[in-house]
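Translate structure to sequence.
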């Protein structure tokens, strides 16, 4: 029984260390993702642009929003200076950034309350393999501990 207890204790310590590390990395990534999304938002719609364009004021807007704005006003919504009409350029850099964010499958709304719940299945599965490797002979015990912390779906 002493060996099993030591194995369980070792597995618990390893799992706890990995969980703490993953949560810290998760919080850092979520903060970065939120900052990127905030920087890419259209100042008119306050949403991520579907088709980002740059106006003559140097700011990035959703194409539909700035075109509608320009129908009623010839000034920049940001600087209030006169905008050159017909000079909207596609913002390919922002478009690519938004594609990467969307392809990641991670959703990060402003009202998200559970920052620790950001999906990190890849790192979790890697950590699980590491735990099971570091606890030889204790596969079922370590697997049970892991599943009790992360649930059955973290098994795949």
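Result:
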């Amino acid at each position: 029984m002493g060996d099993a207890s030591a194995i369980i204790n070792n597995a618990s310590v390893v799992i706890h260390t990995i969980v703490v590390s993953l949560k810290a990395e998760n919080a850092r990534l979520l903060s970065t993702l939120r900052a990127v999304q905030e920087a890419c938002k259209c100042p008119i719609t306050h949403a991520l642009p579907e088709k980002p364009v740059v106006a003559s004021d140097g700011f990035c807007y959703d194409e539909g929003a700035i075109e509608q704005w320009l129908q009623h006003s010839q000034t920049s919504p940001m600087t209030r200076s006169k905008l050159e009409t017909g000079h909207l350029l596609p913002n390919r850099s922002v478009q690519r950034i938004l594609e990467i964010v969307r392809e990641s499958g991670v959703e990060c709304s402003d009202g998200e309350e559970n920052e620790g719940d950001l999906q990190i299945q890849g790192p979790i599965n890697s950590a699980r393999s590491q735990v099971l490797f570091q606890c030889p002979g204790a596969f079922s015990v370590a697997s049970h501990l892991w599943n009790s912390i992360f649930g059955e779906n973290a098994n795949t």
